[in-house]
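Bumping my old thread because nobody answered last time. Still need a sequence for this structure:
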């Protein structure tokens, strides 16, 4: 299991994930932080980056914040 810190920028022109340091990432998403849309988008972006299923990713802390603690279950290829 891997736990990472995520800094989120919402409502951006493009989606990306950038590693800032070991275990710390910055994610840009087009989604707006309304009704959990941005959280769903963040999970999708992390899923593609780490090559894991979306169901293996959960936001542990920061559901309504731009700073989050995200947990990724085993099966990571990166």
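Sorry it took so long. Here it is:
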């Amino acid at each position: 299991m891997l736990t990472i810190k995520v800094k989120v920028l919402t409502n951006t022109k493009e989606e990306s994930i950038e590693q800032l340091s070991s275990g710390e990432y910055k994610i840009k998403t087009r989604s707006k932080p309304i009704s959990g849309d941005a959280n769903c988008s963040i999970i999708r972006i992390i899923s593609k980056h780490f090559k894991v299923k979306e169901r293996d990713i959960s936001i542990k802390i920061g559901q309504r914040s731009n700073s989050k603690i995200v947990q990724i279950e085993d099966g990571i290829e990166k």
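The beta strands are 2-9, 16-21, 24-28, 57-61, 67-72. Let me know if any region looks off to you.
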